[in-house]
Amino acid sequence: MEGLQIRKDGIWVPIKPLSNAFVINIGDMLEILTNGIYRSIEHRAMVNSEKERIFIAAFHRPTMDGILGPATSLVTSQRPALFRKVGVADYLNGFFSRELRGKSYLDVFRIQDEIGK
Hints:
This protein has helices at residues 28-33, 88-97, and strands spanning 4-8, 11-14, 43-45, 67-68, 86-87. By secondary structure, the protein is α+β, with helices and mostly antiparallel strands. The longest helix is centred in the last third of the chain and has 10 residues, at 88-97. Keywords: Iron, Metal-binding, Vitamin C. It holds the Pfam family 2OG-FeII_Oxy. Residues 1-62 form the Fe2OG dioxygenase domain.
């Protein structure tokens, strides 16, 4: 059943479902942890008034007193850290208290290069 959409180039694009398949959306925390190797995708679920579909959201997070940042094994001179480190509690407090302004919360932790890319 259709219902999942992702944002691509500022446009919401419907995703055609595959029969008997699971869709796993990688969250922002995993993008930070993998130093951008796995990308978080902005997505939304749409209601279909004609057909039922099952949507289950499951969330996993590190311990609240932990530190969130790129895994040291994934930071090299060829691939420097893309995100700064932050306490998990601070990250979650900021995430749940932010206002939606069309900018990803992930961008708050992105490290900018010297010319601001």
